[in-house]
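Recap for those who missed Tuesday's class. We walked through two folding examples back to back. For each one, the amino acid string is listed first and its predicted structure tokens come directly after. Nothing is annotated here on purpose, so try labeling regions yourself before you check the end of the notes.
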Amino acid sequence: MPFFKVTLIRSAIGLPKKTSGVLQALGLRKRMATVFHPVSPQVAGQIMAVKELVVVSEVEHALTKAEMRANRRPDPGYYIETPASEALDPRI
């Protein structure tokens, strides 16, 4: 079942209450917040009402909060790089 992945990019400060009400109905409260909604005409209409403020993509399945947090986490540890001279000359 496909889902809309909706991310709030621009703030609704200073916009009409109708616009901020649509954002609240979508579950978007802070900038850079992401929510997933099933694809339906009702949700598509809400997204069209705030299309200048959000970025939308269609995904196959919704991610949980834990999965989204894991995607943002950097790779653990660090990498040790060998100097170029050691990589070219095996005697060193």
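Example two. Treat it independently of the first, because the proteins are unrelated.
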Amino acid sequence: MSFFSLIQKKGSKPIPPAPNSIRKELVHSSANAKKTSFLKIARPNPAIPGSRRTRQKATKDRDRPTTSDHVRKRKKSQQIRLVSDSDSGESDTPAEAPKKRTKVINGAPKSMKRQLRSVTAFSEDDHGIFPMVHASDIAALDKHTKYRLAFPQQGDQQAVQLQYPSASQQETFNLVEPLQKDDFKPLEDITETLEIATNFYLPPADAAVFKDDSHGLLRRLKRARDKKDGAAFMLLVQEWNDAITEARLDGRIARVLDESTELDLKLIERILTQTYARTVSPRVSTLRQYENGTDNVYGELLPNFVSEIFRITELGSNHVFVDLGSGVGNVILQAALEVGCESWGCEIMENACVLAKLQEQEFKARCRLWGLAIGDINLERGDFLENQKIINVLPKADVILVNNQAFTPELNDRLTSHFLDLKEGCQVVSLKSFVPAGHRITSRNLNSAYNVLEVDEKRYYSACVSWTDAPGSYYVSRKDSSRLRAFSTHGVAV
């Protein structure tokens, strides 16, 4: 069980979305990119259609059902169009959709320049010793009210050292099991870590040997765990340590990483879950200490939803990502790992800031254990409307995330005024739209930030946010000043 799922309180009342009365137009969205079970070799992203079509083509498309209209049952992505003075007598049919352009870095697709393997993590110059939270630090017999021996027949001293794919130090695990099912499970953490490392760090032929249903190491390890055979379990962990070390020394692991440019979400979630379990989970009760009815309400976007946001916005390793109201830093860490970009976050709640700093330190240690390079991480404390570093970085941002589900209208309005300084093409992802329903560009509101935002409404589904399992809407606002320029010049917004 992922530790992100544990923060969802059973029976909690969902935060109701704002009533939606904005004029909308249907825009066909591309199918979700398929997730693979191995590290993915670089390839162009699936095409994501643009947000405009010709009026003639839109009319024909609207009247003629397509094959996908019969097959797909999910609600399609919707676009929210601004309306100008001259639009009042016409229907808001979208303009022509430009062909998707692959982001290019020196002539290559953006993912081609991502280097996954951390040279430092595979170097033995410093013996791979660094501060980290071992599993034994959060699950031990001295925490007698929460844990008991996993293998009682083996005596009181039960611990193993686990080797990760890099040249870094091993992690210590006490062989204990929790009394409460939702607490950290050391044996489950070991088996899941071995499964992930087998799937994503070994060549397919080697991985097949480890995963053999009859005699593979993973199968034998689970059998020893289920039969409460502590001696066999410890021997199999040592067998794993020897095998993974050999694969690293002869270069097999390095070759797999160097031939890959993207990380599978399962690997990303494993690292984030390990980090969260060792830092936030033991202190998660502090996050419930917020003042109801204010902007300081805590909630998290879950990794699968965050990954979809990265895909929709085409966030690349050469981009700048900003999370305004970053909580304990989950999204910032995921961006640094999954995309490898420069990531910034700002949080005003002091208890969340403390946990975010703990997460950042442990996350860097975890990525080194797994041998992965990450992007720059910058976590700021305080009001993001007043923090000077955040104010300075916003004009450079390519993607901004704002979990404004519980923001007051006043805070949303204050934040929107800062969008005038964003660069063209910057995308703002939010859970409530920043553009009021029915907004029009007029001669009286030319200085409004609403006029430079082109908004698409999209849907998220179950298991996407921490405060409810219900589906909902989110919005992607792109900075586009062309309509405002057209209105200023010709009195017409096109």
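Answers for example two:
Residues 6-112 have pLDDT under 50 and may be disordered.
Residues 83 and 161 are 63 Å apart (CA to CA).
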